[in-house]
């Protein structure tokens, strides 16, 4: 069969513009003046797609110099697509724009350089105040014969879905193959996707707003849909961390990297039918990615380049020769592109020393809040500060210079030889300077001063203290009890010593145990602790109380080389008895601590089943958080118990195993009591026989509420069934209708019970319908006889009675129904539609 190649529709076409000039008039006697030729660029242009965040509703300058590198570059033809996105302007290597709260905008511009083809560049922009603007991507696979597929975004994102999050209905869109796009509908946290007529792929882009913080985040679901007669390629690790599995691969900002999927360790892409596969499409919001050979049906490689440091997510589509499509997600960490510093600290004419502006990685390691800024003049990545972090940094060396100080420095070096002195300093961004009670930006190349703009990064040089200097030897310490050198303080030979004082942090002076050893002009500070946390201190000259230096925040890290799973808490079941439908999940919490009981963050956790071949086990997020936690998620297609064990590889290479924990999977939607394995510590789900998408729960038993730690104040009492209208010994929980009944169903919705988030009190008509489905079994004991539900009391409905204080309740044994005062107690069934 001949293979058909599909490609994602590109949002913007590449535009090449050739500008030509016409000669001017001549009087016939003298030649027309010839304009000087523009200088030839020395650094060839590299243009990359990128992603940026702007403050909502505020005119912002987005510097794109990280994404467009080279010299003598000009921008032109800026356009935008997207709802709530203002038309852009161009100012040097910046776009000026305004975007409304939550808007996702695709800004496009042309980057031009003499002698180089013009390049059309995309800048994805999200208007939000969120510190982390992108949610981890989600992926799914379907066949063309499948019914519409529901993606419960909250459940799929796990810990990345925060309390107060909600999907914005107006910002859900389907993108992908031109003329072959599916449709998406939103219901609460669930996006339901209906595939189009032909095999291929789409992506659903959505915005999540948090009602508590007001922040917006951008999310995406990548969906493939294949022919039903063909088995699509299989990806062993559909969510794959390139760096963790391939330590030799290093990506740096502004540098192009070629990645071959077939060569990535344990990614494991195979065709179950024994055929070949190809990489068909690759996309990223934050990086520039493209296929190495778009026309080759055996291509497995793509190129990657990114203008910003940090983690980047890449989605890709692989296909076999018979229209079988599978999507996968890659994560790649990008480091700063840095070379040796070619510039040094300088003095002005008054012998005041100005420290050399530092590279990004040097400052980032010290714990300051900085961004990575590419400087084409210095050909290096500099630390970009804001007003707070810049001032804090300079307090560790001396003080932030004033505008007058920087003017004096510039005047002192105006006659420096080219490529010497101040001419070597990074100059593509302003330097932070104080000006009375405000901050300014000072341009070192021409001496211009502009008001401080919090949306742009600033370089920082500090006015060094000749009286006393603080030299930090490290900004992080392993909390293993070993004493290490933290810093040295240098003073004049006749000084009177120093005094240390804690400024901030979670650790006390006793915890960090800093000791001093003074020898001549130098005092060495050492520290030792077994407690993880943070600590920041100030150094005061005993001879001059106004001479104070402030350290960066020092992080005391857990000892990862002793990381282990605590016996009692290392692997704990947090959600059990999921349906054995291959989608519902049981969850377990992982806890990782060091030998001193400190939580260990940032280690990769793996998990597996030691007892089931049908269980699917994943870890999300892949690494432990600051509390040493992550979550193991398990699904299965077979009912019964599954044994789970977690593993961690210490930095020293040792592999540690957790104790075994057991989760249970219930018969898919049986709706029956007792629970699988006996007892009542579960909550069955019963699909309607008339409409299988409508699910009901019976009244819960007391042992189940205790198992899930449900608040005692949220139910009134219990009634013990005696075998007549319910199973003997069943302690049925009873609720009033003044808040308790509603809160129980809302709890099921909030915890995404059985993967659904729309649980609610049923109407009287819904309960009548449920009873009628089983009236043929027994008109007087319908749900008890058919499903062993408790039926001695009525079940509350959401339908109000004639009085404001009454609601209908329905007996699911005999079908009787009548209004009942809300302060009374009844059983509760919840419904999901």
TrEMBL record:
Q: Which domain of life is it from?
A: Bacteria
Pfam families the record matches = Big_1, Lcl_C
| Domain Big-1 per the UniProt entry, residue ranges | 568-666
Which InterPro entries does this chain map to? Answer: Big_1_dom (IPR003344), Ig-like_fold (IPR013783), Invasin/intimin_cell_adhesion (IPR008964), Lcl_C (IPR011460)
Q: Which family does it belong to?
A: Belongs to the intimin/invasin family.
Descriptive protein name: Ig domain protein group 1 domain protein
Upper lineage is:
Bacteria, Pseudomonadati, Pseudomonadota, Gammaproteobacteria, Vibrionales
């Amino acid at each position: 069969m001949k293979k058909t190649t599909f490609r994602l529709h590109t949002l913007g076409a590449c535009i090449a513009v050739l500008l030509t000039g016409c000669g001017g008039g001549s009087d016939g006697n003298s030649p027309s003046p010839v304009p000087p030729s523009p200088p030839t660029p020395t650094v060839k242009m590299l243009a990359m797609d990128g992603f940026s965040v702007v403050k909502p509703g505020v005119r912002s300058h987005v510097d794109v110099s990280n994404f467009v590198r080279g010299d003598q570059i000009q921008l032109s033809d800026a356009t935008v697509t997207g709802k709530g996105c203002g038309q852009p302007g161009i100012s040097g290597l910046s776009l000026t724009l305004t975007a409304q709260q939550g808007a996702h905008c695709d800004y496009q511009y042309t980057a031009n350089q003499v002698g180089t083809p013009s390049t059309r560049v995309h800048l994805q922009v999200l208007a939000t105040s969120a510190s982390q603007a992108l949610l981890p991507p989600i992926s799914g696979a379907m066949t063309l014969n499948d019914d519409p597929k529901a993606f419960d975004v909250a459940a799929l994102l796990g810990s990345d879905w925060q309390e107060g999050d909600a999907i914005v209905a107006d910002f859900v869109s389907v993108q992908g193959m031109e003329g072959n796009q599916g449709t998406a509908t939103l219901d609460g946290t669930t996006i339901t996707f209906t595939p189009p007529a032909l095999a291929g792929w789409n992506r659903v882009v959505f915005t999540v707003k948090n009602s508590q913080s007001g922040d917006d985040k951008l999310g995406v679901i990548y969906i493939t849909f294949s022919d039903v007669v063909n088995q699509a390629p299989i990806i062993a690790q559909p969510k794959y961390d390139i760096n963790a599995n391939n330590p030799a691969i290093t990506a740096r900002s502004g540098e192009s990297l070629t990645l071959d999927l077939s060569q990535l360790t344990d990614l494991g892409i195979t065709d179950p039918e024994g055929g070949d596969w190809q990489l068909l499409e690759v996309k990223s919001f934050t990086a520039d990615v493209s296929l190495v050979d778009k026309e080759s049906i055996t291509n497995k490689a793509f190129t990657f380049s990114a203008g910003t440091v940090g983690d980047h997510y890449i989605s890709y589509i692989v296909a076999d020769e018979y229209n079988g499509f599978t999507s996968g997600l890659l994560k790649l960490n990008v480091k700063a592109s840095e070379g040796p510093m070619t510039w040094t600290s300088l003095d002005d004419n008054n012998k005041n020393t100005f420290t050399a502006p530092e590279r990004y990685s040097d400052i980032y390691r010290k714990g300051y809040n900085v961004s990575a800024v590419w400087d084409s003049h210095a050909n290096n990545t500099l630390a970009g500060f804001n007003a707070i972090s810049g001032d804090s940094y300079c307090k560790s060396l001396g003080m932030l210079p004033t505008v007058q100080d920087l003017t004096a420095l510039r005047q002192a070096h105006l006659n420096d030889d080219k490529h010497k002195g101040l001419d070597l300093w990074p100059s593509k961004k302003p330097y932070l300077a104080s000006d009375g009670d405000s901050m300014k930006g000072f341009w070192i190349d021409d001496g211009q001063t502009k008001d401080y703009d919090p949306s742009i990064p600033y370089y920082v040089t500090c006015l060094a203290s000749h009286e006393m200097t603080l030299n930090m030897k490290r900004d992080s310490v392993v909390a293993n009890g070993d004493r290490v050198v933290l810093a040295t303080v240098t003073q004049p030979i006749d000084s009177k010593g120093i005094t240390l004082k804690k400024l901030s942090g979670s650790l006390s002076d006793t915890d960090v145990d800093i000791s001093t050893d003074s020898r001549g002009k130098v005092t060495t500070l050492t520290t030792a602790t077994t407690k993880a946390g943070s600590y920041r201190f100030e150094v005061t000259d005993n001879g001059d109380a106004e001479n104070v230096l402030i350290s960066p925040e020092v992080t005391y890290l857990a000892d990862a080389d002793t990381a282990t799973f605590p016996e009692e808490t290392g692997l704990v079941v947090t959600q059990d008895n999921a349906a054995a439908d291959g989608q519902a999940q049981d969850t377990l919490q992982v806890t990782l601590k060091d030998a001193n009981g400190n939580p260990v963050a940032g280690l990769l956790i793996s998990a597996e089943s030691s007892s089931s071949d049908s269980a699917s086990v994943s870890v999300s997020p892949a690494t432990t958080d600051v509390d040493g936690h992550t979550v193991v998620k398990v699904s299965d297609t077979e009912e019964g118990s599954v044994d789970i064990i977690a593993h961690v590889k210490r930095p020293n290479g040792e592999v540690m195993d957790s104790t075994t924990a057991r989760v249970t999977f219930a018969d898919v939607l049986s709706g029956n009591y007792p629970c699988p394995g006996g007892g009542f510590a579960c909550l069955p789900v019963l699909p309607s026989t008339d409409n299988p998408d409508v699910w009901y729960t019976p009244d819960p038993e007391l042992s189940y509420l205790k198992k899930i730690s449900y608040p005692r104040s949220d139910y009134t009492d219990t009634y013990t069934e005696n075998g007549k209208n319910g199973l003997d010994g069943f302690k049925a929980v009873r609720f009033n209708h003044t808040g308790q009944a509603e809160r129980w169903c809302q709890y099921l919705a909030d915890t995404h019970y059985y993967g659904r988030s729309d649980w609610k009190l049923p109407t009287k008509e819904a309960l009548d319908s449920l009873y009628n489905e089983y009236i043929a079994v027994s008109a007087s004991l319908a749900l008890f006889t058919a499903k062993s539900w408790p039926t001695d009391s009525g079940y509350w409905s959401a339908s109000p009675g004639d009085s404001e204080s009454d609601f209908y309740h329905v007996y699911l044994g005999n079908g009787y129904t009548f209004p009942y005062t809300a302060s009374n107690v009844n059983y509760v069934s919840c419904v999901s539609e």
